[in-house]
# Entry
Amino acid sequence: MRRLVDAAQQQDLYFDGCSTVVTAKGPGGLDLAGGMTVDVWIAPYAYEHGIDGKPQARVNQHDPGARTGFLLGLRRFGQIVFQLGFGTDLAEVTGAPDRPAAKGRWSHVAATYDPPRPADVDALPHHDFATGDLTGWTVVSGTAFSDANVTTRTDWGWGGPFYQAETQDDPAGHHLWGFSPSAGGDGATAVLRSTPVVLGGDGVIDLLVSAGDDPDRLYAAVVRADDGKVLAKATGRGTEQYRRVVLDLSAHIGDRIHIEVVDRADGGWGHINVADVNVPVRRS
Ligand SMILES: [Ca+2]
# Structure
């Protein structure tokens, strides 16, 4: 619908979300090396049987014969399916059979493909604070960060959860909560630094960050060790809940870097939290 100058409405496009096909020029060839996410709102009024067992596409740009492109759709009984073609292989993941797309109700469905990470790299030492203290990290200045900030707490006292990572390396879910009432709370400041490493692999670093939103004074940064230049950084979003930040430093593969956690803020929300810092480290 669009509203004309005289306030009348004119229908330009009819789309009921179930029986209408809309064709649009796609983004062209898919480059799966960087991963992809596709999402769609769907409201099936019925579960279709499907022809020859093929999924019913809801959004797709694919060539089944060439095994290229993607398809996000439904199988029988409303089971959600995502297919991705790699030329030689067709990968498929399906939703749980007992969790079909709801009939007659709009649902948001998203599928993400993360390409395999390089395997011939090491991890940043103590990247997840699994020892329960600041082993492997150095307090460069200030008092805001100490062993007391490394915690497995899932809530901060009046809410939660943090949603920190619980990984194979750190099943207990340790994280660096930058707020410590016994060390001055938000008023304290400090700089914390990881072990220096040589960036390897694909040069893509990811980590969890949360708390104060102040890119100048509260951040986790990738710093070039030789000259202290900040190559990339991320601040919080004014919530204690972690979010995953991905930093593409492929232009700096081979550089010696360290991770720096910086708190130069002393007012409300004057702290920064960090967890699960994943750096592809070149093997020496
Ligand atoms: Ca502070």
